Amino acid sequence: MTEETKRDLASRRGVETSVYQPAEDSQLLATAVERAGRGRFLEVGTGSGWVAAQATDVDAVTSVVATDVNPHACRTARERALSGGGPGEASGPAFDVVRADLLSPFVDGAFDTVAFNPPYLPTDPDNEWDDWMERALSGGESGRELIEPFLDTVGRALADDGVALLLVSSLTGYDEVLDYAASCGFDHDVVVEESYPFETLSVLALTDAADG
Ligand SMILES: C[S@@+](CC[C@H](N)C(=O)[O-])C[C@H]1O[C@@H](n2cnc3c(N)ncnc32)[C@H](O)[C@@H]1O
User: Fold this and answer.
1) Which residues contact 109 (CB under 8 A, 6 or more apart)?
2) CATH code of the region 3-211
3) Quick one: which atom of ligand 1 is closest to the CA of 102?
């Protein structure tokens, strides 16, 4: 992918500043959360916090935590969580925000649902951006450099019968992601899928294959 194409995608995805703004992929993940989210919910890589805020309106979801590695994203999400709280300061934020690398701070079995819209654009190492936009968009040379560690570790943070909702782009290598998920012990269903001029986006529901 050329630098110019990446800039086009970045602008189409609303990454004008240091925080990823809600775009069609965010909307698709929120639709999947509405259909398949439940119980204690974590959004990894929340960006502006928009998907996490949508999750607070899902009846089957009982609590919401959002993380991001980007401190600017955490601040923006926290502001959204505070503005989405009930009337009066005593009601507190609508969801909690934690600055974290993937799932590292959380104990085993902490969540019933974990959702992730990862940085996934395959990026030539010579064209990597050294900024927060890169961290929001680039999945490294393969496009899967964040997806694979997520798949390696998400099972630990999921409760029994938990589900991971992972957004996958055709640009990233759909079959490669499915193969990697299977090697980590997951079965998959497609919760929602949409095609766009550049790519097809799918949200997979990943569950422990041993339960199937
Ligand atoms: C494609 S954006 C998605 C933002 C938001 N979830 C949405 O759908 O609008 C990916 C997000 O993952 C965050 N991120 C990148 N690497 C991360 C990591 N190691 N741990 C947590 N978040 C990370 C980025 O900062 C960015 O906010």
Assistant:
1) 157, 158, 159, 160, 162
2) 3.40.50.150
3) 20
Which tens digits make up the pLDDT trace of 35-75?
999 999 999 999 999 999 999 999 999 999 999 999 999 99
Question: What are 61's two structure tokens?
Answer: 């979801």
Which of 25, 120, 135 has most ligand 1 atoms within 8 Å of its beta carbon, as the pocket-test mutant?
Answer: 135
Residue 85: closest CA among 74, 76, 95, 94 = 94
Is the distance from the beta carbon of residue 136 to the nearest atom of ligand 1 less than 6 Å? yes
**Strand ranges of the sheet holding 200-208, from the earlier edge strand across to the other edge:** 96-99, 61-68, 39-44, 111-116, 158-169, 200-208, 186-195
Pairing relationship of beta strands 111-116 and 96-99 according to DSSP bridges: unpaired
> pTM higher than 0.85 for the full model?
yes
Boundaries of every domain in the chain: 3-211
